[in-house]
Amino acid sequence: MRQRFSQGGELLSMNDEALRRRLQRLGRRRRGSPPPTRIDAAPPRRELPPGEEIETPFGPTYLIQNKYPLDYLHGASRLSDLLKFDSALVAEVAREPRLREISLERLVFIDTETTGLVGGAGTIAFMVGVGAFVENAFLLRQYFLRDPGEERGMLHAIQGDIEAAAGFVSYNGRAFDLPLLEMRYMLGLRRHWPLSTWPQLDLLHPARRLWRRSLPDCTLGTIERQQLGIQRTEEDVPGALIPGLYLDYLRTGDASEMGGVAYHNAVDILTLVGLAIQVLDRHQREDPSQLSGSEALAVGRWHHDAGRSGLAEIAYRRAVSSSELEVRLDALRYLTAQLKRQGRREEAVEGWQMLHTLASDDPRPCVELAMYYEWHAPNLVEARRWAQEAMVCLTHWTDNWRRDQAWASVEHRLARLARKMGERQ
Description:
Layout: E1 3-5, E2 11-13, H1 14-26, E3 52-56, E4 59-69, E5 73-74, E6 77-78, H2 87-94, E7 107-114, E8 125-134, E9 137-144, H3 151-163, E10 167-170, H4 173-189, E11 200-202, H5 204-211, H6 220-226, H7 242-252, H8 258-284, H9 293-305, H10 309-320, H11 325-341, H12 345-358, H13 364-376, H14 380-394, H15 401-424
Parallel strand pairs: 7-10, 10-11
Antiparallel strand pairs: 1-2, 3-4, 4-9, 5-6, 7-8, 8-9
Helix pairs in contact: 3-4, 9-10, 9-11, 10-11, 11-12, 12-13, 13-14, 14-15
């Protein structure tokens, strides 16, 4: 086979050269043949939600804008109710110390609608909702991507809303919405913008603390219906369908379903305000009597983590009266552990006994009672009785190393008690 060198010195075979000539011929049209049919980048867009086209240095983008009065009622709360809470409370609930110095008026509420939930460079945010308190109102701006080619313009327009803020309020925004926007800014505008590191009240985490025991799930929609009393109209579309509806719109140009998507996004933003009100209100109460058992337990743990043992105890005692068995058990465990740490073992006795009654397979309260009667309120007969009860509990455990270890510990205790009782006889 003959060989020749390319201009760059690369060795080419005749087969390579023939392939190159053939590819070049494929790019030529026959003389007199009609030009190829032009395919538009996207079909014409019809029935877009009411909004306006705005110009940016990177091209146009589409903006849907609505302003709500502060007394607007969303569910059980008015939007203005949020502004009464102190920034210090917000910082503690969010476990974000930087929020202590930021008023709620300087935070933006953000939510995105995307082409999928898998992440990666192929996922785009085609609608970004940004809400903020401005001039005695709540302003909601929704940026809609009419065509993927307008993404740079949309990203540039959103910058103004974000740069005016000091932090975010979101629902899982730290893990999803903000990392996605970071990636889109890097790809679209070549801007490294670490938005996920900004101060943020991500409501997913305190909402889970409050309601994960009492709700089937902690999606925003479930919390909205069952805790906030919000009922969406028939205009809404299910969140799971939104990526597919947008792809249908890109393919057909029919935007009739995009109004429902915009409604869905707008209600999500308003619900962030309502949810923040309810979450902060529950954490602010010093009297937990009006809280549910699971809420009181969550607030008790929050107070405990902040070092407020007195308020934690009040909340635990409210949770102990819950009708939910798992809530009562956890509340008793936390309460008795706190009383023991504080040297108030005599007060913990009733709790340990109640734990044994409610969870008869758990040897831990029996061991605590055996220890109490052996070392702190000397009564060796009672100590032996509770150690024997612990052995009975362990017979229900699966035979493994944990059971063997616990069994050996209780056996050792019983042997020591037998020696002590023998010495006294």
